[in-house]
Amino acid sequence: MTTKTSAGEHDEEGERTGRGDRTMRHFTIHHDGVTIPVSRDGQGPPLVLCPGLNSTQAGLHELTELLRRDYDVVTFDLRGHGLASAADRYSFEAFLGDLVAVMAELGNLGLPAAPALVGYSLGADLAVHYASEHPDTIAELVLIDGANPVPEPFITKAVLPEFRAMWENLAARQEDERGTARQVLLTGQEILDLNLEIDVVRSEILDRYRRINRPIRMIMSASMAGDSGEGHAPQFNQTWRAGVERLVREHPDITTTWLDADHQLVFTHAPEIAQIIHGAEGPARRATS
User: Fold this and answer.
1) DSSP-assigned states of every residue in 130-176
2) Whole-model pTM above 0.70?
C-alpha cells in the first residue's frame, strides 16, 4: 500500500484555505485504487476524527469545528463517502485500510505528539482495530456509539426484511446528495451487507480491546434505536447497554458517558460530545460508569 498527497508531497504543499488566523490544509491520499480526501485545521494537540458508515466530513462539520478550538483536527472521508472516490468493494477491512492509510500519512508529517483517535459508529470499530494493531501510534481512543461487544447480533433472520427495506429507503434518499460533499455512493444492499459484517466484527471485538494499552473513553447513546416503547427499539437499546456493561466489567478502566440521545447523537449533541472529549465536567455528562 502506498500513499501520497495530491501534490505528491506532504500537506504543507497541498491546498490551503484561509480561516481567520488559521489555515485549513487539504490533501489527498491514494491507496487501494481509491482517493481519500483529508482536511487538517485547528490549534492544539493532534486529534483524528474517523467518520462512520453513511457519515462524512461535511456531516460532522459542527463537531469538527467545536473540536478545532482546542485541537489540531484531522478529518477525512471513507471510500464511497463525501469527496472520496467510489470503490469496487465496501468491506470492513477495506474501510480499515482507509484509516490505516490516513494514519500512515500522518506519521510522515512529523506531528508533535501521537494523536487522539476519535471514531463514530463504524469509525469507532475501525479505531479499535487500528489501535489494537498500532497501539503506540495514538495517545488515546474516544469511541462514539460504536465498537460495542453486544452479546447478540442486531440483524437476525426475523428482522432482516425490515433492515433491508430501511437501508434501501436510505440509499434512495441519499440520491439527493449525489455530487455533494455529503454524498454516500453505497447501495442499500451494500449497507446491509456491511451491517451484517459489523455484527460479526463486534462479536469478536473484546479480544481487540485486550491488545490496547492506551486510555479509552466511550460516549454512548442511551436510546440507540430511539425512545419508542414499541417494536424492536426496547430490545435493541437493552442489547446496546448490555454490550457496554460487558466491556466495562472486563475493562473497568474504560470511562463511559451515556447521553440522552439515539444513534444520531454525533449530529444532535455535538456540543455535549465536544465538551466530553475536552474532558470538561458539567451538564453534558448525564451518567458515567
Assistant:
1) HHHH-GGG-SEEEEES-----SS-S--TTTHHHHHHHHHHHHHHGGG
2) yes
